[in-house]
Amino acid sequence: MKRIFYILIVALSIFSCTEDIDKSSRYTFTGETVADFMLKRSDKYSHMITLLKRANLFGLLSTYGQYTLFLPDNEAVEKYIQEQDSIYQTSKDSHKVKWTGITSPYFEDISDSMANVIARNHLVEGYYNTVTFEDGALPCWNFYNRYLGISYESNPKGYFVKINNSAAIIDRDNSVENGVIHIVDKIVEETNNTLPEQIGEYKFFTLFNAALEATCFCDSLTLFIDDNFIPLDEIILASKDTPQQKYYKYTGFIEPDEVFYENGIYTIDDLKAFAEKWYGTEDRNNPCSPRNALYKFVAYHFVERELPYNKIIPLTVGKYSINNYMVPGHDCYDYFETMLGRLIKVIKPLSSADGKYVYINRPKDGRLYNHEMYNHLNVRLIEPTEFLQMNEEYSNFTPYAKNGIIHPIDKILIYNEDEM
Asked: Less packed terminus of the chain by CB within 10 Å, N or C?
C-alpha cells in the first residue's frame, strides 16, 4: 500500500511536466515558435519535423506554452537509424537478438512506434536553458516519461553539455516565443533495459551484478508500468490532472568492482563472506532467501523511487529550507527506506568543507561506535560527470534504465544499526 501511495504522489508531482496539457485556451503566436524555427530551416530539420508530426506533437509547438527541444539535424537522424539497424541485423547472427526497434537503414521505413519514441524523447515541457542545467538530470520527465541525464564533457573541440551521455549540445539556448531549442550532434538515446539489465551492461559492475543474479534480486527490480492501473478520474469525479499511468521506479547505489578490490573482495565467494560478517549466516545455503546475508547486502542498495543526483537533496547551494525558513550553512539531509526495510540517510553536509558532495550514512554525533564501520560510512555518491571522467572504461556509462537509475558509490555500503 505504501508503494502504491508513493507512486501516485510521484505521478502527481511530475504530471505537469508531461504531454497531457490543457490546450483549450491555447492560441497561435505571431512571433517565431519552436515549430517555426524548424520550418524555416526545414532543409536541415525535416526529419524531426516528420517525426514530431507522426507523434502528434508538432502542432503543439506552434501554440502557447513553454517547451525545450533537443534538435538533431537530418544527418544525425539518418546516422542513428543506420547504426540501430546495423546493431539489430548483426545480432541476428548471434544467440541473442538485440531488438532496437529499427529494422531498416532508411528513414522512410521507420515505424510509427519508433517515430513516437524518438520525437517524445527529445521534447520536455518547460523552458530550460543551459544556465539552469545541473549535473544529474533535468527537473521534469520528457514526453517519453523519462528523465534526461545531464553531464559535461571537455575535449579538444571545446566544453559541451551531454544529454544522456549520448548527444552533445553544439548550439545552445536558441530562444523563441514558446520555448528554447538546443541543437544536438546526435539522437538523444534511451534504453529499454530494466535496472538489473542496465547494471549488467557494464563490466565494471561485474561483482555486484553477480550478487544480483545469485540472490534472485533481479526479479524485484523489473516492474515498470502497472497494466492494471485504473486512473482515479475513471472511478470518481476527480481533477483532470490525475495520473493516467502508474510507474514503478528504483534507485541503486552500486559499488564498481574497483571499490570491492580495494577491500580485498575479488570473487562472489569473497563478497558472500563479507556479507555474512555484517548480516549473519541465517539461510546461508539459500541466497534467494530474504534472510540470507548476501540477499540483505544487495537489498540495502536499492530504494523504490527514482532519484537523479541533483534531485536527491534538492536545494539552493548554501541554503536549506527548514519549516519554510532558509538557514545558511545547515546540513541538508533526508531518509529513504531501502528494499531491506532499513533506512539510509542521504546528506549534503553544507556545514563542512566537503559540503558540495552527497553522502550516505554519515556517523551520528560525528562519532564511530563500531570502528570496523570506518570504511563503510560517509559513502559518497560519485557525481555523474566526475564518474565519466575517472577513466576510459567509465566514459560510456549511462546511469538511466527505463525503470530507474544507478549511482556509483566510492565505498562498500552496509547497514549497521549502532551507527545509524
From this structure: N
Q: Which of 116, 46, 33, 55 is nearest to 78 (CA)?
A: 46
Question: Phi/psi at 92 (nearest 5 deg)?
Answer: -65, -20
Q: How far apart are CA 169 and CA 71, in angstroms?
A: 9
pLDDT tens, position by position, 147-169: 999 999 988 888 899 999 999 99
- CA torsion, points 21, 57, 63, 29, in degrees to nearest 10? 170
Half-sphere exposure of 25 (CA within 13 A, CB side): 2
Q: Report DSSP letters for 31-64, one per residue.
A: S--HHHHHHTTHHHHHHHHHHHHHTT-TGGGGBS
What cell numbers appear for 271 in the block?
Answer: 563478497
d(CA 155, CA 161): 11
Spatial separation of the C-alpha atoms in residues 211 and 275, rounded to whole Å? 11
* 116: three-class secondary structure by DSSP: helix
**HSE-up (13 A, CA, CB side) for residue 372:** 7
Contact 60, 119 (CB under 8 A): no
Maximum alpha-carbon separation in the chain: 71
Q: What is the pTM of this model?
A: 0.87
Q: What is the pLDDT of residues 46-74, one digit of tens each?
A: 999 999 999 999 999 999 899 999 999 99
H/E run at residue 389? helix 384-390
Distance from C-alpha of 164 to C-alpha of 57, rounded to nearest angstrom: 22
